[in-house]
Each structure stands twice: as C-alpha cells, then as structure tokens.
C-alpha cells in the first residue's frame, strides 16, 4: 500500500499556490495527486490539533506521492521549497494501490460529468430556521453564508478533506456502515469518495513541530478521505436531506470521536504546470 503525504500549507509572500505548484510539479521525485485551495472549515476538531488546524489560514492542500518508494525522506517537499513555507501540517497515509491507480481516470470522469439536479432538500431547509454548526454535520448559518459567497465566484466542483478519529473499539466498523449507506445518498447528488486511506501512526513522542507533532499514536487521526461534490450547493443539499441525516445519526455520530472537515476547490494541475508564472 503506497504511503502518500497530505500537506496543508501557508506560504510565505509573495509565493502563491500556483507558483508553488508549478515549481513542485517540475521535480521528478514527487508526484502531485491532489492540489487544491482551502476555502472554509466546515467542522472544527474538538480534540486533535484544533490549533493549528482550524486557527490557521491555509493557502494550499497537497496530496503527494514519492516516485521513488525506496526514498528515506519523510517529506517529499525539498529544502528549496521548504523555505517558501510559513506553516505546514503533514499527515502520512496508506492509500490502496488499486484506488490510486484508478484515481486519474475517476477524477477526470467526475469533473466532466454534468451537474445533477438538486433534490429539493436544500430549498426546503433554507425556508426553515437553520441549526447551529457542530460536529453533527448539519446545515448551519455559517455554511449557508459560505455557500452563498462561494457561488458568486465558483459554481463548480468542491473537494472535501475529511480527517477522522474513531471512537474505540467499534468506531471504525460504524463508520464503514456509514460509508456503505453514504454511497447512494451522496451519489444521487453527484458525491463520490475519490481517495480513502489509513493514517500511518507517528512514533510516540516523535515528529516535527510543523506536523505529526509529538502525539501518542492512539491520539492521532485514523483515516483520511477526499470526497468530490459537483458544487457546494450539492454538498449542502445532501446535508439538508432527511436521507443523509438518517445515516448521519445512525452511523456517523457514534463512529467519530473527532473530525476535521475542510472544503477546498482544486487547481487545474496541467494548466498551472504549463503556465508561465
């Protein structure tokens, strides 16, 4: 199972996400699997690393794969580019080989699909009093305001990063049941999990100050997922649906001890790499 690294970065001005991606894409030892712009934290973690995760203004999300599996380097971002980074949060995760091999094709198909019609759940929810934001993953006033603001400039696909920390001993099983029920509920809104992986536990007391930092392995994220939605409205339509809230309450809430959910919009890697910055 290939080990990839997930990075949240704040860049040192005047470095832009586009210029950083362009430089990184030229390096033969690193493959960029996902590059996206963080837009809004939908769920703030309560236990694990709320500071810095929810308190830092991130500029860039990267999922990187080393092209040389035998490399002993723990960070695929080389020193010259490290100097352009102000803050970094890093997680290592094992991604199934079959999932990784199929990712480029699946990603293109998902992004090329026409947006499905909304189910009407969002319209009904907007006519009622919205609930406050929480780890319950509900349609909150803050999320509605973000949806309206993002739609002014971006009405295309969004990519959700999920960091998951399970209740033990049965949380992972409960989340698996949630995942199975999630497929048809999200699918009719165009939602699809593109990447799912198991987080590699850091050694107790090991790690650097900018990520994977000195935390006992049992107090760390267990799983990551990267999920596609045709638009932020489709994501919100799902949250507003009774079908989704049913599986959320039955399976998801009992499964999770903590979670971080970040809405991002992906960069066109080919376009950024070929542009003259």
TrEMBL record:
PANTHER family: DUF1330 DOMAIN-CONTAINING PROTEIN, PTHR40257
Protein name as catalogued: Uncharacterized protein
Lineage: Eukaryota, Fungi, Dikarya, Ascomycota, Pezizomycotina
């Amino acid at each position: 199972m290939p080990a990839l690294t997930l990075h949240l970065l704040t860049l040192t001005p005047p470095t832009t996400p586009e210029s950083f991606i362009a430089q990184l894409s030229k390096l033969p030892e690193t493959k960029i699997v996902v590059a996206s712009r963080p837009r809004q934290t939908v769920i703030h973690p309560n236990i694990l690393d709320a500071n810095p995760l929810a308190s830092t203004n991130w500029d860039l999300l990267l999922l990187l794969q080393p092209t040389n599996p035998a490399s002993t380097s723990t960070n695929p971002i080389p020193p010259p580019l490290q100097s352009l980074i102000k803050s970094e949060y890093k997680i290592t995760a094992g991604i199934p080989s079959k999932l990784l091999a199929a990712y480029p094709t699946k990603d293109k198909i998902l992004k090329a699909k026409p947006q499905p019609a909304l189910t009407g759940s969002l319209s009904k929810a907007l006519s009622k009093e919205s609930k406050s934001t929480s780890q319950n993953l509900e349609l909150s006033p803050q999320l509605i305001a973000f949806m309206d603001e993002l739609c002014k400039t971006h009405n295309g696909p969004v990519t959700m990063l999920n960091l998951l920390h399970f209740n033990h001993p049965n949380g992972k099983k409960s989340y698996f049941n949630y995942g199975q029920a999630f497929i048809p509920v999200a699918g009719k809104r165009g939602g699809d999990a593109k990447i799912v992986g198991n987080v590699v536990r850091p050694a107790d007391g090991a790690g650097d100050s900018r990520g994977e930092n000195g935390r006992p392995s049992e107090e760390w994220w267990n799983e990551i997922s990267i999920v596609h939605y045709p638009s932020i409205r489709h994501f919100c339509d799902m949250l507003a649906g009774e079908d989704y809230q049913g599986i959320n309450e039955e399976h998801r809430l009992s499964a999770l001890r903590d979670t971080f959910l970040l809405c991002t919009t992906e960069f066109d890697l080919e376009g950024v790499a070929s542009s003259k910055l």
